[in-house]
Amino acid sequence: MHNSRSFLLVLSFAIMIASCGKQLTITPTNKPTNLAVVGAKFKGVIFTEDYLIIPAPSNVGNVKRFTPQKEDIISAEVIIKDQIKHLNKDRVNQIRGNPIIEKHLNSYFRQYVGFINSKGDSIIHINFHWNRYSLSNRLKGYYDNRLSFEDDYTHIFDGGSFYWQIKVNLTTKLLYDLEVNGFG
Q1: What is the secondary structure of the chain as a DSSP string?
Q2: Which of 81, 99, 159, 161 is the most buried (most CB within 10 A)?
Q3: Would you say residue 21 has pLDDT above 60?
């Protein structure tokens, strides 16, 4: 029984990765350190290993960088979809009127940064920026203009679940270090 459940889980994971791969493109931009990512329902940017991030995302330590490839992004997105609900069960810094992260994953622009940790594991740090402001919010000045493929890595300190970060360990297939921004 346990073997059949494991087989079905692996088969489901493989089918999701195969179907996602057909709907994801990565293309160069005018900025050599940025690669545009366009999925079926989301957009983002990969920062290459040559992109200098100061300061580096928290809790990554003194590690090497790598440039995430299409397969890495697909795997990271599958892991996020599979594990985010459990990791976000306490809804830290998510007040009334903020998006519930796992219900709105496709409403965020992503920034992907690849690291190799001291154990040799491939880690992708991902910034999520809310990208679905209504016309009324835009008229009030609520929007984020840092959502282009050629913009720099951003550090946002407030905004609740409109801005959050997470890490995906591609080697162990684990999602961890969810950081939902506070309110200032």
Answers
A1: -HHHHHHHHHHHHHHHHHHHHTT-EEEE-SSTTEEEEE-SS-EEEEEPTT---SSPPTT--S-EEE---HHHHHHHHHHHHHHHHHHTTT-TT--TTS--GGG-GGGEEEEEEEEE-TTS-EEEEEEEEE----HHHHHTT------STTSPP----B-GGGEEEEEEETTTTEEEEEEE-B--
A2: 161
A3: no
**Which tokens in the block code for residue 181?**
């921004």
Beta bridge pairs of residue 37: 26, 44
- pTM exceeding the 0.90 threshold for the entire prediction: no
CA distance 146 to 47: 14
User: What stretches of 22-110 show up as alpha helix (H) in DSSP?
Assistant: 70-87
Q: Which of 160, 136, 156, 134 is nearest to 146 (CA)?
A: 156
Give dist(CA 173, CA 130) in Å, integer.
25
Asked if 123 and 60 count as a contact pair (C-beta separation under 8 A), the reply is yes
**Domain extent listing, the chain:** 2-180
Q: Please report where in the chains the tokens 């809310």 appear, as a residue.
A: 130
Rounded mean pLDDT of 34-45?
Answer: 94
Residue 71 CA to residue 55 CA, distance in Å, equals 27
**Distance, CA of 146 to CA of 164 (rounded, Å):** 15
pLDDT at position 10 over 60: no
